[in-house]
Structure formats: C-alpha cells, structure tokens
Amino acid sequence: MSGSKQRYVFIDFDNLKNIKFNKLEKVCDKLFILIDEKEKKIPFKLVREVQRLGRNVKWVSAVANDKGNFDLQLAFLLGRMHQKAHKDIEFAILTNDTSFDDLVEFVNINGRACIRIKRKKTKREKRVVEQLEHKETVLPTLELKHISDTNNESYELIAHAASETIERLIQSGNRPAQVEVLKDYILMYHKDELITKNVDAVLEEIANRNEIKIEQNEVLYNF
Fold this sequence. Notes:
The chain is of the alpha/beta class and 223 residues long. The chain has two domains: 7-125, 3-Layer(aba) Sandwich (Rossmann fold); 152-221. The protein is built from ten helices and seven strands. Residues 128-149 have low confidence and may be disordered.
C-alpha cells in the first residue's frame, strides 16, 4: 500500500474466497485471515495470491462452531492487535456483516481509525437475495441538514472539507459503510468547530456532488 499511513485488514476465510485479491493487496499493508481450524480445502490459486504479501499475511486459527462464535474471535483478534499496534495504523474489517459497526465505532472512539469495508456480493448471493425479496422496496434516504442558509465563508469551509474528504477516501481506499462511521472519519481529520457542528452539511455537500448516496443509514459510493 502506498502512502505513509499503514492499514491492517482483518478478514475471515469465507470472505477472502469471494474477493479480487489484487484490489485488496493495493490497500493493505498487513492481512489477518481468520480461518476455521477444521478447514481442509484451501484453493492453491488463493494461497499463491495471498503469499505475495510474504511475512505480512497472518493466518489465524479459530474454532467455528457457529457464526456468532466466529465473529467474537475476529473481534478478539482485532482487540489484541489494537493493544500491540501503533495508534497511527488504521484497521479495516472486510465484511458485509453490519453487526461489526458497533465494534468499529468503539475502536474509533478509543483513538484508532477503523472502518468496515463492504464486499461486493457474488452473483450467487445476489440471486439468493432476490429470491428472499417478495416485492420491491424503496429505501428511504437520510434527511440531511440544509446548508443553503449558511454564509459564504461557512459554505467555503464546508465545501473544502467535503473536497478533502473525497480526495482522502479515494487515495486511501477507505469506504466507511455506515453514516455515523463516515461522520467520525470526517471529524477525525477536521477539528474546526464549524465542521464539528456541521458535519451533516459536509455529508450533504458530498452527496450533492453525486459522490455518495445515503440510504437507510448506509453509504453507497460512486467512486
């Protein structure tokens, strides 16, 4: 991963099998893979790709009696590394499981940048979702604070914060999946009191530029 900021990525084996590793490699300095100790089949192609990271990949054995237990072990691994790693190292959990969002927020509150990155669903997963949906639903969008009544100077600061946030997200590969986590991300880099009080306005500005879309507290990216 280029740049001075390092990122540790945490992922379970099932998610690892369903991603494009060449993309993960570009945004990852160290990779922690949680795998069931009973796992017997690891594709050779996957092993070959992962080993390109050399000593920066760590296979962590876990007991996967059920999914909840497996998630707890992943949370424990992240907590243990939080104690060991320098606070400037960013953590990223690669999963579509929203149950990790509270953990991500807790880690951010405790002084470390942490995000959850959504994995693109496979065609099979999309078919399953379609089969479960009995009718089409329209997700409500988040109502953001209007910024049209702000003065020019305030708007310039908000617009500048929006531009910097977009650029930083693109360069770093960050994709906070939840609105509150994205707000924390913005505030982590912008300590100005105006931005602190108007972080919703920054989100609205980014959305107005069609860089993101917010649906049911979930952030969808167009870059």
